[in-house]
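User:
Can I borrow your eye for a moment on a structure tokenisation matter? Would you put together a sequence-and-structure record for a protein of your own picking? Please set it down just below, with no commentary around it:
AI:
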Amino acid sequence: MAIAPERPRIYQGSRIPSPIPSVLEVREDLRTSEDVLTVNFGPNHPSTHGVLRLVVDLHGEEVVGLAAVIGYLHTGFEKNMEQKSWWKAITYAPRIDYLSYQNNELVFVLAVEKLLGLEVPSRATWMRMLLAELNRIHSHLVWLATAALELGAISMFWYCFRERDRILDLFELVAGGRMHTRYFQVGGLAEDVPPGFWAECAKFVEVMPKAVDDYEALIDRNEIWLERTQGLGLLSADDAIALGQSGPVLRASGVDWDLRRAQPYLAYDQVDFRVPVYQEGDVYARYRVRMEELRESVKIVEQAVRRMPGGPWIAEDRKVVLPPREELHTSMESLIHHFKIVTEGFSVPEGEVYMTVESPRGELGCYVVSDGGPKPWRVKFRAPSFVALEATATCMRQALVADMIAIVGSLDTVMGEVDR
């Protein structure tokens, strides 16, 4: 008998009645007014977090109309992936969201593994979880640095990038690259974890909570920060659900929903962590959710370091997995397998699958269809940034132009995954 999926729990007091427009229309009494000024924010504007264009109608400093326009960064990642072999397509996934590259890489290889029915060793599963949480911290740090910078808290930028650099050092240590690592492979990991990684990761786990204390000491009681974030950009629980929101934006509106706990994947059901939820639905609540997630992710990383299993780091299926590098010099069979996988790829059984993970921005989904050949027939990503943009107009009611900067930043959109 099929088990019904868990329903999200909505906290009482989180319902703020409001309309759900995707475009904020100018009020009837202002449509003929000569005092309404239409201004373009973007597509090249630092406060729009990339190449987002906001067409804003201003009545004085009040935002009375707003429409988000996208399409200035169209990359065609999904169609490119359909032209490549399953093995080569992995390279494209992390570039869709250039702040959450590990999670994008993860969701694609999980989808392929599900189609293959391939079992991944527990060491690879735990290491994937560890790196996904480091990637979550990395993404939240970049968000906090840039969002604070836009509101005048310049010093936060340098504090956050100090710890971000530590995380990039860890990625470089384990994968050889600081970004877009391509460390997750179908079947496990590209290589085993180097011994020196564990000591450096343990140092980071010790340092990071103190760093979060520094961030909170800088702005948690700062009157300017509180005035610019509290009570602004309201999004009710009902509206957040109706607009398909997820991640910190949804949880800041009082909806207790996190895929790591509600629909566990990797080893999330074996570690202890808390899901932060706030009821206010404003810019400050979204900030608080992400700050607490920093601490919870550090807890997960610490548990993964301490409980990391031994054993193989990639599956044994030589039809799918590259042979160990040391065998290429002594085994003709291994050399042939390596050549065939890299040049022609491997075939995946016919079928379709939709996999989801909890990225730093919410539900990141990957829909993959195989026709039984060496290339994906269809690849489609469910990008949380694209969905978050739909909440922009709803959050902008009764906002001033300065508030708009804080509200757009609080949604944490990455335009790379919006304009796929």
User: Anything to note?
Assistant: The first helix runs from residue 77 to 82. The first strand starts at residue 9 and ends at 10.
